[in-house]
Amino acid sequence: MTINISQHILGLKGQRVNEIKLDDGGVKIVIHCSRDARRRAIDPATGQKGSINQHVRRQVNDIPLFGYPCVVEIELAQVYMALLRFVE
């Protein structure tokens, strides 16, 4: 069974949808995503660009699709920011 869902519909900014499938038991829909390497890593607190410290995978329970519970597996980049101190 194949499902074509635009990533604009899912609203996954900075994510690339790799696979959408029914899990082995046919109980839920699993959407596998990975971080889009074309986008720069940005620190959410400061909004500045930084270097990637490590990648972390998370699972998010989403609204049902086609009557099945939906789980979105995303990959996030933890951003390393060097702190600069200004001397007056």
Q: What do you see in this structure?
A:
The structure is a single chain. By secondary structure, this protein is mainly beta. The protein has one helix spanning 7-10, and strands at residues 15-22, 29-35, 51-65, 68-80.
> How many strand segments?
4
Q: End-to-end span in angstroms?
A: 64 Å
Q: What low-confidence regions span 5 or more consecutive residues with pLDDT below 50? A: none
Order of helices and strands: HEEEE
Rounded to an integer in angstroms, the radius of gyration calculated over CA atoms is 17 Å
Number of helices: 1
- Helix proportion range: under 10%
Describe the main β-sheet briefly.
4 strands, mixed
Strand order of the largest sheet: 1-2-4-3
**Morphology call:** elongated
Proportion of beta-strand residues = over 45%
Structural class: mainly beta
**Overall pLDDT:** 78
Element layout with pairings:
Blueprint: H1 7-10, E1 15-22, E2 29-35, E3 51-65, E4 68-80
List keywords for this structure.
single chain, 88 residues, mainly beta, 4-stranded mixed sheet, 1 helix, 5% helix
Could you give a short description of this structure?
The chain contains 1 helix and 4 strands, in the order H-E-E-E-E. The chain has 88 residues and is mainly β.
